[in-house]
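Ops channel
N.P.: pipeline sanity check, posting one input/output pair.
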């Protein structure tokens, strides 16, 4: 890890203890993958950054909106973390941006972390995925590793801005290969990823206190 990222990671750990959050991570073995890959995960709030720092692999960066550069501390963290910025407003050049990102991944052997829902979502389910991450993985012919954060709803009340201590489960799912795929396969790849992530989200978002008990639906 780079020196700035180590600083961020230790700061984030302090925030986590201050908030009384605990992370339970399963599936570590799926991150033992050599070379570049694309991580996709669901996106609920800025708390996601805390979870990311728990498991962020070496040489991993993020794709984020250009506007984040100017967002105070977040912008500073993005800059220190070497996050890859894309201008998501101009959809016409999204494909060329992805082509550049794919080339950068291969040239520099980096991993990219993408939120395919494209926006924060706390509705207790996943939003339909945008296709960018899948175009990127297919273009670079690198695997996709899905990572799922359990629902924050049992300790984070957004409207009331209330926050209780709680446990967040992170489940790292088996990698999905893209070798030999073309842009024709992007939709089915996206659907497959969505389905495995959604069922994992429902499974780990049950009663966190009863980790082996019946799930609440």
């Amino acid at each position: 890890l780079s020196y700035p990222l180590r600083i961020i990671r230790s700061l984030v750990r302090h925030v986590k203890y201050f908030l009384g959050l605990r992370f339970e991570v399963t599936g570590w073995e799926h991150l033992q993958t050599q070379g570049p890959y694309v991580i996709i995960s669901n996106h609920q709030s800025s708390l996601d950054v805390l979870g990311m720092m728990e498991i962020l692999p070496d040489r991993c960066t993020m794709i984020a909106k250009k506007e984040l550069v100017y967002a105070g501390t977040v912008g500073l963290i993005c800059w220190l973390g070497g996050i890859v910025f894309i201008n998501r407003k101009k959809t016409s050049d999204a494909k060329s941006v992805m082509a550049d990102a794919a080339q950068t991944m291969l040239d520099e052997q980096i991993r990219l972390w993408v939120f395919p829902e494209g926006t924060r979502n706390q509705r207790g389910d996943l939003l339909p995925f945008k296709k960018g991450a899948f175009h990127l993985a297919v273009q670079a012919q690198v695997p996709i590793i899905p990572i799922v954060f359990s629902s924050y709803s049992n300790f984070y009340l957004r409207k009331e801005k209330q926050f209780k201590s709680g446990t967040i489960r992170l489940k790292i799912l088996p990698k999905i290969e893209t070798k030999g795929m073309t842009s024709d396969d992007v939709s089915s790849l996206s659907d497959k990823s969505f389905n495995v992530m959604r069922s994992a989200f429902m499974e780990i978002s049950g009663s966190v206190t009863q980790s082996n008990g019946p799930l609440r639906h």
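N.P.: looks fine end to end. The two ends are 39 Å apart (CA to CA).
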